[in-house]
Amino acid sequence: MKNFTDLGLAETVLKAVEAEGYTTPTPIQAQVIPAMLEGRDVLGTAQTGTGKTAAFVLPLLNRLADDHQRPPPKSCGTLILAPTRELAAQIADSVRAYGKYGRQSVAVVVGGVKPGPQIKAMARGVDILVATPGRLMDHMQGGAIRLDQTTTVILDEADQMLDLGFMPAIRKIMSKVPSKRQTALLSATMPKPIRALANDFLNNPVEVAVATVAKPIELIDQRVMLVDRSAKRRILIDIVGASDVERAIVFTRTKRGADKVQRSLADAGLSAAAIHGNKSQNQRTKTLDAFKNGNVTILVATDIAARGIDVENISHVINFELPNIPESYVHRIGRTARAGKSGVAVSLCDGAEREYLRDIEKLVGYKISSTGNGGAGDEPEPRRGGGGRNGSRNGNGNGNRQPRDGAAKNARPGNRPARRSKHKAKPAAQGAREEARPGNEGDSDGLVRMLGQKPGGNRPSRKPGGPRRSSRKRSQGGGSEARESA
Fold it and tell me: Which of 115, 141, 317 is nearest to 224 (CA)?
């Protein structure tokens, strides 16, 4: 295999790569870097943890080293789109690390933080802009960002970016970029229907697939424990409390579930913190930093975090709840065994999740080793609607579960009317700009049922005919996981 010195990269880039401790490119890097240096469009697929970010960042920095011309005010030379705030921040960190001997400028535009500093950062124009679609469109419509001078577009984690929930925003953004451009789409998975959509954005691309699509890394020791739903918390505490667990991520399907699991771990005396879309950006950043520096050893996360967590030496990934979209399983367990290291992925599967397990095994192409025989008495979760694209359960393209019998999405149990939100309704145009909720982040909360609570938290039940209890607090579990409101 080639060394980085054989790829034709500039001296400043090579010096930074060497400073990061790398000498040999990964397979995805060895193929994508030369193609991008030639100006070709790229459609790249590689397993999670194989160096996709450097595969597109290094050619961008090489181009700036050869011919650096600052873009006009409010514009950017390269636009990198990412599905989550965390992933956008980590891409920007990579740009700064690999470009520390260069003169490039980089800005990050994401939701969850004040827009003022972002507007100021873009005022003079930047070489590389890393953004999430929702906040980017807000700034575009406000006149703070223009894309008419953009020559390169990168869609990272392309399968999620091109999911049907993102398509309206992506198409609007791409319509503002000159047709004469270089475009690269890279991801860990590339389902066939999503690949067809990607073809709309690419011109005679170089296709790079260095591993079988949607196959987990072989260095991950995968295990399934067939358990009763009611025993999950106790088993989880036993697993993450073991001496061989150095640093672990525990995945749940819902935000409310992540908080409940975190509290259970904390009550057991374990160092745990939760990260999900209902946390402020400041909270998410502090939690992730604490996990990186070792102050927190267990991170409880929803699937939105699976695309943005790149932390070294994660020894274990625990699926407290199996995802209802098989591809999400690959992204989850890909948080361990990174950069050639080994790791362990344990999935706690109750009786209601056996169908999800079969879908995952069909995707990866083999049966995952399992132990135990629990969960026989757990009531299965019925599929609602027809078989959707890409493993979604309702056929609407984003995998969100729908209420029974066509009930309104926010309908409450029994005959109680939906509580009126104290927040103003968002215009349809703004709603289209917000990040679509990942399929695993639906309103139905398996963990709530497991704990024997009614949806909506610990609210006391109302006797038939009795007065309705009022509450000034609204449940935090129904918001969009990846929403990027200002």
Answer: 317
Give whole-number Cα distances, 180 to 129, 174, 362, 413, in Å: 18, 11, 40, 54
What span, in angstroms and rounded, lies between the C-alpha atoms of 221 and 227? 19
What is the pTM (predicted TM-score) of this model? Answer: 0.69
Q: Output phi, psi for 484, to 5 deg.
A: -125, 55
CATH of domain 214-405+427-459+468-479: 3.40.50.300
Q: What ranges do the domains of the chain cover?
A: 4-209, 214-405+427-459+468-479
The per-residue pLDDT for range 238-262, each reduced to its tens digit, is 999 998 999 999 999 999 999 999 9
Does the fold of domain 214-405+427-459+468-479 match that of domain 4-209? yes
Contacting residues for 366 by C-beta, under 8 A, at least 6 apart: none
- Residue 222's pLDDT is what? 96
Rg (CA), the chain: 23
The one-character DSSP state at 277 is T
Share of the chain above pLDDT 90, in %: 51
Q: What is the mean pLDDT of residues 352-379?
A: 89
Per-residue pLDDT tens digits for 57-82: 999 999 999 888 889 999 999 999 99
For domain 4-209, the CATH superfamily is P-loop containing nucleotide triphosphate hydrolases (3.40.50.300)
Q: What is the DSSP string of 325-379?
A: SHHHHHHHHTTSS-TT--EEEEEEE-GGGHHHHHHHHHHHTSPPPEE----TTSP
CB 281 within 8 A of CB 272: no
